[in-house]
Amino acid sequence: MSVILKAEGLSKTFKLSAKQQKLQKTKKKVITAVDNVSFEAYEGEIYGLLGPNGAGKTTTLRILATIIKADKGDAVVDGSSVREEPDAVRSKIGFLTSELKLEDFFTPNYLFDFFSKIHHIDPAVSESRKRILFEKFGIDKFAEVKVANLSTGMKQKTSLVISIVHDPNIIIFDEPTNGLDVITAKVVTDFLLELKAQGKTIILSTHIFNLVEKLCDRAGVIIDGKMVACDTLENLTAEKSLEDLFFDLYSKNAGGEG
User: Residue 193 and residue 197: Cα distance in Å, rounded?
Assistant: First the structure.
């Protein structure tokens, strides 16, 4: 397998307002969200970023998706630098985040068509792809229902479908099953395995151990913005369960700035 995504020395800090300092009970004016994170993802694999809330997972993925810029470091995604060639990176990836908010007054049908046009997808190709994806996720029955009237699960499935409207080879998912009921979560995880079977590369963040164990070929553990372990699942769990490994690493590495 060849490397399709390579992150090197990614670092990102954020300034805290007085209100944020008070909420976080800290006097620090700057926090380090991501601290010299490096890892590689290979073609056709699912790579998991595992860590607690606030560990730096979302910030790392947002850097990879060119939503924000790293203070230091770079990542090369299928030959394109997130720092120097963000437009090229965006054309090659799909990005689904829990922060994606669909406008309440649009319908899934309209949103799919809108994002297809943004990506310059041929109308016939877009219509065929929409039919397949909407049927797979049960969106077809709600295609003309406004987002405001959709269930949480249906909104998540609509967001997922929109994020891959252009059939990207690299897909970045931030907490893909967060807040979903068990039925919808299984639909999503089964689909991730389908994408892998198609040769897609998937990067996902999660704090759920069994999701990593079920889906991922390799994983990195992020704690307080630092990558404290990175290997194949087989090697990571050779001596103890993923959960036990994580808590061992957490007890040794937690308590920093991130």
Answer: 6
Phi (first) and psi of residue 162, to 5 degrees:
-65, -35
Please give the model's pTM, rounded to 2 decimal places: 0.90
Mean pLDDT by 10 residues, the chain (258 residues): 94 86 79 93 95 91 94 96 95 83 90 93 95 93 94 89 93 87 88 94 93 94 94 93 94 67
Asked, for residue 69, whether it belongs to a domain, the answer is yes
Residue 48: predicted pLDDT:
95
What pLDDT is recorded for position 11?
A: 96
CA atoms of 35 and 38, how far apart (whole Å) = 9
CATH of residue 17: 3.40.50.300
Nearest-5° Cα angle at 109, 107 to 111: 70
- Quote the domain boundaries for residue 186: 3-100+170-253
- Whether 62 is in a domain gets the answer yes
Residue 175, in any domain of the structure? yes
Question: Residue type at 220?
Answer: G
Residues 134, 153, 93, 165, Cα dihedral to 10° = 20
Residues comprising the chain, all counted: 258
Number of domains in the chain: 1
76: in domain: yes
* CA–CA separation, 61 and 152 (whole Å): 23
